[in-house]
Amino acid sequence: MKRLTKIFFVTTIHLTLLGCFERELQSEANINEGWVKETKISKLIKNVNFEFPENGYAFNIKNDLIAQTFDAIEHNKRILKKDIFNDTIYVRFMSSRDEMFKYTGTRSSGTAYPYWSTVNIVSKEGEVSSPIKHELMHLMLLLDLGYPKNSSSWINEGIATYAANNCNGYSVSDVYRYLLAEHRLIPIEDLTSSFYDQSEMIAYHQSGYIVQYLLENYSLEQFKQLWTGGFQKFEEIYGISYPKIEKDLQKAMVLKYPKAPNIVWEEFSKGCY
User: Fold this and answer.
1) What is the count of structural domains for the chain?
2) What's the order of all strands across the beta sheet hosting 110-113?
3) Does residue 116 sit in the same domain as residue 200?
4) How, if at all, do strands 118-122 and 89-94 pair?
5) Can you tell me the distance from the alpha carbon of 59 to that of 62, in angstroms, rounded to the nearest whole number?
6) Which of 75, 131, 189, 256 is most buried, judged by most C-beta within 10 A?
7) Each residue of 74-127: pLDDT tens digit?
8) Do 153 and 235 have their domain in common?
């Protein structure tokens, strides 16, 4: 009987203390009026201010993500023929698309904001690979040239897609060759007038290869003029009509890649993984 009384007494104390602890937490929550403390870690390395969650996947692989960031800057410098890039920028890694939405209003895997010299990138295990080259290319060009004319939005996304140049193991040239063979290419009139209304997987990769072709066969200065001047000045800038360039591009592609890659579109069109 005494043993049962002792057990009852200890249990009562435990429940009483637990109740007090819960009331203390509730009281603290009431005092804070719903405010939640969130912490990040940050560090300036060279000209890049990095920010990571204080724990989790992105935190655990932060050294690899930092290395990828500097590799991406060097890669993009080569495409843009820049000797230096010493702008102070912010690269913020986020743990999920939900967190991205909270801070940016979009659930995309990456965003670039030149006004704040910032890119935001989701890094989550099992998610699409972090779009570091893509978003940094946006930022580096936007810092130099500002936003393009609306009719040149396609080359903004095109050069960023070309910078990454990998979707499910395929390059932008691979995807363009497949789209050409399957008659899936989007008319340039639609790319230049309503880019973001088009099929994303087609529009981005199609634009990516056109940009690659323009950069490989014409000058970077002409590309920059197209960026700032808009598509309506294409022939004035390049000295040749776009339909003629497109014809030359496709002829050269078929000669270089006689056989289109065997892409399973139903799977590929779901996105890059």
Assistant:
1) 3
2) 40-45, 48-53, 89-94, 118-122, 110-113
3) no
4) parallel
5) 5
6) 131
7) 999 999 999 999 999 999 999 999 999 999 999 999 999 999 999 999 999 877
8) yes
